[in-house]
Fold:
Amino acid sequence: MSLVELLLSRLAERIASFSPRWSPANCFAAESVFPEPTPALDRFCTVAPGEGSFDPAFDGGGPHVLVERLSIVVTPFRQSLQEPSRTQVNALGEGLLAEREALLALLLEPWDPRHEGRALLVEPLVPKKSLAPQLHRSPQGLAFRGAGIVVEAALDRGAFL
Structure:
């Protein structure tokens, strides 16, 4: 398992233990924000990688100071109960934005994930962006609304080289 996959999995585990509405069955690390195949659940949450960059402090410092600033997208989804012909997002009525706010509160709490006794992160998670509610359709014909949060994680790659 890569360090990025490990970090995503640990964050999904943390969210799953946060509230009775989340569990390992409905909150998980995923390759993309809207997973394929889509789970046949009325509610789920994905923890997916976004784009990243390597810290400029690495320049000349050697591999042991390498930090990857990785975007992580945490997105709660709710199955849409509206008629398939409607495409207007009604996230307010489905409680989606309230779920996103609860997840944001959790993401702001101190967290020190470790692997082999060493810290994975060199800084706390930093919220960067909230994503507008969007309608997604699964190949199975189900409609889901999602509203994500983008956080930045400073992954300490140098500690594991």
